[in-house]
Automatic annotation (TrEMBL):
Name of protein: Carboxypeptidase
Keywords linked to the UniProt accession: Carboxypeptidase, Disulfide bond, Glycoprotein, Hydrolase, Protease, Signal
PANTHER family (UniProt xref): SERINE CARBOXYPEPTIDASE CTSA-4.1, SERINE PROTEASE FAMILY S10 SERINE CARBOXYPEPTIDASE
Residues making up the signal peptide according to the UniProt record: 1-24
Acetylation among keywords: no
Cellular component terms per the entry's GO annotation: vacuole
EC class of the enzyme, as a word: hydrolase
Pfam families to which the protein is assigned, alphabetical: Peptidase_S10
GO biological process terms, semicolon-separated: proteolysis
Amino acid sequence: MGNLSLFFLLLLVSGLFLSHAASAGSIPDDLRLPSTSAFPRASAKKLIRALNLIPKDASPESTVGFSSDASQNRIFERRFRFPGLSDGISVDDLGHRAGYYSLPHTHDARMFYLFFKSRNSNKDPIVIWLTGGPGCSSELAVFYENGPFSIADNMSLVWNQFGWDQASNLIYVDQPTGTGFSYSSDKRDLRHNEKGVSDDLYDFLQAFFAEHSEYAENDFYITGESYAGHYIPAFASRVHQGNKDKEGIHINLKGFAIGNGLTDPAIQYKAYTDYALDMGIIKESDYKRINKIYPTCELAIKLCGTSGTVSCLASYLVCNTIFSSIMRIAGNANYYDIRKQCEGSLCYDFSNMEKFLNLKSVRETLGVGDIEFVSCSPTVYEAMLTDWMRNLEVGIPALLEDGIQLLVYAGEYDLICNWLGNSRWVHAMEWSGQSGFVSSSEIPFLVDGVEAGLLKTHGSLSFLKVHDAGHMVPMDQPKAALEMLKRWTQGKLAEDSTSSVNLDAEM
C-alpha cells in the first residue's frame, strides 16, 4: 500500500474515533466530526476507571478557602494532619499542606496539590512529582510509592521510612484538570496538549513560590513516571524558558527525572516486540507477525510529528495494535510487572487509597468538600489522545546543553514503558554529549553494597536500569529509589558505585 493510500486509511480510522469522542465531549471543537459511528472505549476502560470532568457536588464553596468572589490568581491551602496517622506530631511540626490553585488561564479550573515538608531540612530540594495516565492522580504515588506514608487495611497510616520527604520537600499535583481532586465546572478546561499542561503547572509554581517564598531559592527538580514522560520534558522546558524570559519568580531548576516513561513513541513502540521476545512473553513466530504492523505505525508517527491532531489519533490507534497483540498472547499478565498477574482495573489493588480518600473525615481534613475521589480518569485520558504519540524527546537536548540534569530510570520488569525502549531513545538522542554517553561504561548502582541496578552516566545525562522492579520503581524498590534521589540531587549518582568499581579493579 502506498503512503498516500495509507494516510487516507489512517484519516478514515481516526475520523471514526473522532466522531465518537466528539459526541462524548472529550475532543476540542476544531477536531469534531459529525457523529456517524461509535468507537469502543475498550483501551481506556482496560487501563483506567471512570470519572466525570465535574466531580460530584464540587463547587468553589465546598472546597478549602474558596468563595464565589475568590481571586483567580491565588492559592488557598490549609495545614493538615491525616486522621489515623500514628505518633502525636502536631500540624505545625508536620508542615503538611493541602490546597487548591485557581488556574488563571482557564474558565473555572482548580488544581489540587499536596505539600510535605522535608523530614530532614527545609533547605532540601523542592521535588515535584507528576503521575501519568494521562489522568491518574498523584495520590497513587503518595500512598503507594514515595510519599510519607502508606495505608493499612484498617485505614490507619503507617510512616514510610523510604519516603522521598526524607531528602526533599515534596509537592504532588493532580493534573491535568479533571484528575483526582482537581476539577472544573467547564468542559472547555480539559487539556489536549503539553502546552496547556505545562502552562498550568508553571502558573501553579509561580503562585506556590509566591506563597512560600522561604522555598523559592531551593534547588528544584521535576520527577514522575509513565505518561509523565510527556509532561516532564514539556514542563522542564516551560520552567527553563520562563527563567530565561524573566517571567516572574526565578525557579532554581536543576534537573528532571523520568521513571518508566513514554517520551519518544517511535523508538519505544518498536521496542515492544524486542522486549517481549527477550522476556519470553512471545515466540519468534509472534515476533515476526506483530512486527509487520510497525512500518505503518512508524509512518503514522511521522505524520503526527510534534503538533499533529487527527494524524496523532490515527497513529495512537495503529501503533497500539502492537501492544494489544502482545497482550492477547500474554493473557492476564500484569503489563506493569510481567512477573505478576493483573488484578483489578489498574492491575494493582489500590482500593484502600480510594476508601481512605473518600472517608468524610479525610475529605474534611483536605478541604475537598464532597468531591468523590477516583484514581484515574478516562475523560482526561481521551482528551489527551492527540498528544499521546507526539515526540517529547525533541525539547530535551536544549535543556542538557544548558546543564539541566536528566535522569531516566526504569524497572526491568515493566512491559508498557519498558527499560529497553527507554534506553534506546536515550542513546539515540542527539546532543553534544551523545558520543560520550554512548561510549561510557555501564557500572553497577550499589545500595548497601548490593547491585540494585545498572547505571550509565555522562555529563548532564544518566540512565539507570533498576533491578527487581516493574513500572512503579519507588513501590517495588523503595530503598533504592530513595538512594537514587539522594545521590542524583546531590550530584553523586555514580560516586559510590564508581569508587567500588575502582577498588575492585585495584584488587
